[in-house]
Design brief:
Largest sheet: 7 strands, mixed
Strand content: 25-35%
Distance between the termini: 21 Å
CATH topology: Trna Endonuclease, Chain: A, domain 1
Number of strands: 9
CATH architecture: 3-Layer(aba) Sandwich
Number of helices: 4
Order of helices and strands: HHEEEEHEHEEEE
Shape: globular
């Protein structure tokens, strides 16, 4: 007997879960096409944008961060990678592809922007999306210690390519913008299997 009921999470968790799956598969496909030399975090933007729009979000890329003034007349405004809005669900997200060989990710600038967004829109959520190779991503340390893992990691573990995506949420949005904690090693996780919706 077939059913049309979809097993989904509430938003924004469903959209972010789909982003994790899409990024791991998308980059694995590009690696199979031998385009590895052109890899950067910018190739992640189109899949993220498509999924958010498909899920009914209004999306702005390079969103001017509220509450942070630009430096001087010629300076640029600080910008967030994504701002998404769908009815009562709103969030901002920064996207990072940590380079291999670096065990510590300096996310202080991202943290400052996410805190500023959260202060302006207190009911919104704020996320840090990390993408990279499995053996590197599972051990990454984040500075400052102000993020908590929002979803189980998703890893596409093939023989020659092993990429994954982890999404963290800002943990303490009320701390001062100039205050940063020490590094922390987030949970390493396993190859994620989606639990049934409760």
């Amino acid at each position: 007997m077939s059913t049309n009921v979809k097993n989904t999470y509430p938003e924004p968790k469903e959209a972010l879960y789909r982003i994790q799956r899409a990024l791991a598969g998308h980059v694995s496909y590009l690696a199979a096409c031998e385009t590895n030399k052109t890899f950067s975090e910018y190739i992640l933007y189109e899949p993220i944008l498509r999924i958010l729009m498909m899920r009914g979000f209004s999306v702005q890329c390079e969103y001017i961060c509220p509450g942070i003034a630009k430096r001087g007349r010629r300076g640029d405004y600080k910008k967030l990678d994504f701002e998404a809005n769908r009815r009562r669900v709103r969030f901002a997200m920064e996207v990072k592809w940590p380079r291999d060989g670096k065990r510590v990710l300096d996310a202080r600038k991202d943290h400052k922007k996410l805190v500023a967004f959260k202060r302006r829109y207190t009911s919104a959520q704020t996320f840090l999306c990390l993408f990279g190779r499995y053996d590197h991503l599972k051990r990454i340390e984040i500075v400052p210690n102000q993020f908590v893992e929002y979803l189980d990691p998703i890893y596409a573990l093939f023989r020659r390519t092993q990429f994954g995506c982890r999404i963290f949420e800002l943990k303490t949005p009320n701390i001062r913008l100039s205050s940063y904690g020490s590094s922390v090693t987030p949970p390493t996780g396993q190859v994620a299997r989606r639990p049934p919706a409760g």
